[in-house]
Amino acid sequence: MGDMAIVEAVRDALEFEMSRDDRVIVLGEDVGGSGGVFRATENLQKQFGTSRVFDMPLAESAIIGSALGLALAGLVPVVEIQFMGFTHNAFNQITEQLARIRYRSYGSLSAQVTIRAPFGGGVRAPEMHSDGFEAHFTHCPGLKVVAPATPADARGLLLSAIRDPDPVMFLEPLRGYRLIRGTVPTGDVTIPIGRARVARPGTDCTVIAWSAAVEVATKTAEVAAAEGISLEVIDLRTLVPLDTDAIRESVVKTGRVVVLQEASCTGGYAAEVIATIQEDAEMFFSLKGPMARVCGPDTPYPVQLLEPAYLINPDRVMRIIRSVLQA
Fold first, then answer.
1. Model pLDDT, residue 93
2. SS3 for 157?
3. Which parts of the chain sit beneath pLDDT 50?
């Protein structure tokens, strides 16, 4: 066991898996000598050499394309994209090439590639750095999407992502990199992809969240408890595949649902969660009132000083919780 921040847990997982499997390589912008923009790969090049940890040009499409080729050659690439906002520069390579390689090859080829990218806001990063469009990648058949909220989950899920035979988009909470700390099991301890967790048990309303929004949900649950409201917080951990069994168990118990996401509202993944509940007869007939979502506004992610007005927070969530309970 060790006390780690999320970025430390990510680095520990990379070091462990590179020591365990000499096929694992790390590539991306500035991941070598400088150890990455957030130092998630610090000292890995010194430890494993320049043939296993190496810098790539400022060209995300070339980075992902190279990772696909390296995977087809038998290596296990772990790509770092500095910010999720830059993944659109490689969208074709991710969605049309990497995610479809098993389908396009009639199952004869697979791409064991993990793409790490921090996302979301709260650190006053420059424009085009803090976007949260995870929904774009959940709408991509062949690609798994993982979004941990705690250091232990970040480490355990990253190990599982690297070992998965198919490509995984591994999204890390930008504002949780150093602010969220916790006890992390070391050694060969994995967490299965596709399994949610109950971050806080409750009986009155189910609050579903992922990544940094889980921290908002748990803080909201503390505020709600002071008002005599019991919230159950479900941390999805994985968006694709979605753990519908965990959601069903909670919704059937509480009968009320609020979904949180940092991203802007329209077309976000919160809508997918709500649709999934709506289409499930057991969950639908357990509902005591309309479901709700708390999201960012439908605007471009704002400049630094306007972040607090954009980000979801416990006050906003509590207003929706109260309305859902009264409906």
1. 97
2. helix
3. none
Structure tokens at 168: 């995984």
Annotated catalytic residues are: 129
Q: Which residues contact 298 (CB under 8 A, 6 or more apart)?
A: 264, 265, 266
**What's the pLDDT score for residue 15?**
98
pLDDT given for residue 269 in this prediction: 98
pLDDT tens, position by position, 170-181: 999 988 888 899
Residue at 38: amino acid letter: F
Amino acid type, 170: F
Question: CA–CA separation, 261 vs 208, rounded Å?
Answer: 9
Burial class (CB in 10 A: 0-12, 13-18, 19+), 227: exposed
Residue ranges per structural domain of the chain: 2-184, 197-326
User: In this structure, are strands 24-28 and 197-200 parallel, antiparallel, or unpaired?
Assistant: unpaired
Instruction: Please tell me the predicted confidence (pLDDT) of residue 136.
Output: 95
CATH 3.60.10.10 assigned to domain 197-326? The reply is no
Task: Return d(Cα 191, Cα 257) in angstroms, integer.
Answer: 26
Tokens coding 215:
């921290």
Query: In this structure, which amino acid lies at residue 215?
Result: E
Q: For the chain, first and last CA: distance in Å? A: 45
CATH classification number, 2-184, choose in 3.40.50.620, 3.40.50.300, 3.20.20.70, 3.40.50.970: 3.40.50.970
